[in-house]
Structures are given as C-alpha cells and as structure tokens.
Design a protein that fits this description.
Length: about 350
C-alpha cells in the first residue's frame, strides 16, 4: 500500500493506493463514521462492511439528485452524526458525487472520504473535489468544490463491474494520455489485451498514472482557471452527444476526443497520423469513434456550454499526443469545423 498526502488549497487529502476495503477500519474510526453505498455495490461488496453504520441508496444516474442527498441527510440525522462524523462514500461516481455534496452541507460541512468502486470513479470522479447532483434535466447543476479527507483505492473492487460498464472508464484514461502522458498512451497500446481482460497489475498501473495526472492538474489549478480546463478534452462535444443520444459518458467522451483531434489537425497542426493512432486506440478499447449526431442539435447545446466566453468556446486541443492546449475558438468557426467532420 502506498500512502500519499496532497495539500489542496483548503484541505489535505490522503490517498491510500492499493489498500483493501477490508482495512478501512485501520484508517477511520468506525464509531465516528457513516457509510453511504448504492444497492449494487452493497450486493457485491457490502459483506466487507459488517458493523459499520450504513445508508444504502438506489443506484444509477437518475437518482443523482437532491432527493438522494436528503435521504443521506435523513440517515446521518438518524445515526445522530455530528460535526466529527466522517461520511464515507463507497461506490462509483454517482455515489462519490452525491456523498461529497451531502457531507458538505450537513451541519455546514462534515469530513468525508471515498472508496471508489468503478474504474471511472478511481481514475476520475473521486479525485479533485467536485461534488454535486443534477437538477431536472440539468446535469451536475448543483455542487461544490471541497476535497475528501481520504480516498482508498482498492484495485480489486472494479473487477465485479458488469461488462457494459467496464469499457467506459478507459475513455478518461485515454484522455490523460492524450493531454499530458505520452508514455501512458504507449502503455495503453501495448497492454490492451490485459487491460480488457481485467489484469489487476495492469489496472493498478493505469489507475496510478491517471490518479497522478488528475492530481497534478488539480493541484495546479483547483478552481479551474487554467490547466484544469485540459481535463475537458473530448468533453465539450462529448457532453452534447451524451445529452442527445443518452449514451454512457465514456462513449460520448470517446466520440468527443476524436472530433477534438480532427479540430486539432486544422487549428494546431496535429499530424493526421496521430489522430489515426487515437482512433485505433479508442476502437481497440471497444469505444465508439464516429460522430453521427445531428449537427444542428449539437451546435445548439454547444452554445449553452459552461465554458463559453462571449462568442467563443475555450476548446481543448492537442499539439501532439501527450500535449494539450486550450484555444478560444469562435462559435462560427466551430460550426464550420463541425460541418467538416
Ligand atoms: P455509477 O456510480 O452510476 O456506477 C455505474 C454502475 O455500476 C452503477 O449501477 C453502480 O451501482 C455499479 N457499480 C459500481 N461499482 C460497482 C462494482 N464494483 N461492481 C458492480 N457494480 C458496480 O457511475 P460511474 O460510471 O462510476 O460514474 C459516473 C458518474 O460520475 C456521473 O454521475 C458523472 O457525472 C460523475 N463524474 C464525476 C466527476 C467529478 O469530478 N466529480 C468526474 C467524472 C464523472
């Protein structure tokens, strides 16, 4: 187990890399903790958590809302949680987002920690302190930036994920490789078979590199004024596709990354063979590459993007694989680029 402590602006977070969920009680006093877990994770891993105070909530993106936050708050109140109680979110990104948010408003904020159980939550959602819920049709409309006090990474937990969820986590790993870690890109190419067959040593490497990449960016720019924007590579168009097609986040980001690479060829002189290499890697990880959505509809969503600044969008582009940059691209130019996709 590797223990690392990172000092964010308002909070220190301890990463417990390669620790077993069974050891949770060594890092946090179970008498001063309440666990929140979703029903699927409870079914697969809940037996590790005997004698913990536990709130079990429904699973799924549809319940990432204020009603679930209120359910957690009801549970905390029923357990007579006070300001020294730590809320521990054990689950995928839905649980970490909702648990971090509930902990941040209960009694004006109690400590919280995460045990991410999906690949996506280990490489992305649990890190960086963005916690929140959706409201009506608006994804992640309500939220806060506040760091957990610990994150326990047990690499064996995601192994029980269903196949259809498995590939989605790779989109974010490919993203880190594209924006800042060219050796990770090579590693993903070489170790594809092992990664897809859930080889734990390969997964450990992929999670550790991704955690390091995201942490580096967040430490430099916790409140998203500069480099944190790079993490949106593939996401601007990806979010629009996700909204229109109702496909998984990872799949939509994969399509968005290919489009962003195509734009990078035109705007940043990214060599075309690098785009082709990216397309090959994404397909090898069973993720989609073709942009088939209605362009007008995507463009309408683009216009409402949170990253919009007057008549331009801060688009994340690649100079080369492993090196990202942002450029304010006028909306009219984006429209033209999309037509050429
Ligand atoms: P999720 O939490 O909904 O999990 C996906 C499914 O897998 C759920 O049905 C869940 O019950 C199940 N599951 C979780 N762990 C399992 C396990 N070990 N074995 C079997 N089943 C398991 O979704 P996700 O893909 O982990 O995360 C997506 C969410 O993360 C979205 O809400 C997204 O907005 C959020 N997110 C947040 C950030 C951030 O910075 N805060 C970043 C990326 C994504």
């Amino acid at each position: 187990m590797i223990k690392e402590t990172h000092r964010f602006q308002q909070q220190e977070t301890t990463y417990l890399l390669g620790e077993s969920l069974l050891q949770l009680g060594n890092h946090i006093d179970r008498n001063r903790a309440v666990v929140v877990i979703d029903e699927n994770v409870e079914r697969h891993h809940g037996y590790h958590l005997h004698n913990w105070k536990k709130i079990v909530v429904q699973a799924g993106e549809d319940v990432k809302n204020m009603a679930t936050v209120e359910k957690i708050i009801d549970g905390l109140a029923a357990f007579e949680a006070d300001r020294k109680t730590t809320l521990v979110g054990i689950g995928g990104g839905m649980i970490t987002d909702v648990a971090g948010f509930a902990a941040s408003i209960y009694m004006r904020g109690i400590p919280f920690g995460f045990v991410p159980t999906t690949l996506l939550a280990q490489v992305d959602a649990s890190i960086g302190g963005k916690n929140g819920v959706s409201h009506g049709k608006h994804k992640n409309l309500l939220g806060i930036i506040r760091q957990p006090s610990f994150i326990l990474f047990d690499y064996a937990l995601p192994l029980t994920m269903p196949d259809e969820e498995w590939h989605n986590g790779f989109a974010e790993i490919i993203k880190y490789a594209c924006i800042m870690d060219a050796p990770l890109f090579d590693y993903l190419e070489v170790n594809r078979e092992k990664a897809l067959s859930r080889d734990v040593a390969v997964l450990q490497h992929l999670v550790e590199r991704s955690v390091a990449a995201k942490t580096k960016v967040v430490l430099e720019d916790e409140f998203e004024n500069g480099p944190r924007r790079w993490l949106n590579f593939g996401h601007t168009l990806g979010h629009a596709v996700e909204k229109l097609e109702h496909i998984a986040h990872g799949k939509a980001v994969a399509i968005g990354m290919v489009a962003a690479a195509r734009f990078s060829e035109k705007l940043m002189a990214l060599p075309q063979e690098q785009t082709l290499r990216l397309i090959r890697l994404i397909s090898d990880y069973h993720l989609p590459v073709a942009f088939t959505s209605d362009k007008e509809a995507v463009f309408d969503i683009f216009k409402l993007d949170k990253k919009r600044d007057k008549d331009a969008i801060h688009f994340v582009l690649l100079e080369e694989i492993g090196k990202a940059t942002t450029l304010a691209v006028p909306i009219t130019e984006l429209k033209q680029l999309m037509e050429e996709l």
